[in-house]
Amino acid sequence: MITIHLRYEIDPEKLEEFTQYGREWIRLVNRLGGTHHGYFMPSEGDSDEAFALFTFPSMAEYEAYRIASRTDPECVAAFQFARDTQCIRRYERRFQTPVFD
């Protein structure tokens, strides 16, 4: 099992747009074989930092998702929404192995 941890630097003036983007990706990751654990939005502290966590059964299944997301019309539209709204300034991706028990 592999968990992907995303750290986003977002535009705090476009929190609504980023929230819309996040809700769409939760649905898309789940539809494409992953388990999305949610987006974690700014509250107190930094106003321009958000996080997301999602898990795939294996790195191979994550790679299959990545390949599929490049041509899936809904994924392409979600990527374009982020570009159009410029709600994301940059992001970092980390791969982690979860321990649940």
Automatic annotation (TrEMBL):
Pfam family of the protein (one): NIPSNAP
Top-level lineage group: Bacteria
Gene3D superfamilies: 3.30.70.100
Matches recorded under InterPro entries: Dimeric_a/b-barrel, NIPSNAP
SUPFAM superfamilies: Dimeric alpha+beta barrel
Residue span, NIPSNAP domain: 7-99
Designated name of the protein: NIPSNAP family protein
Organism: Microbacterium yannicii
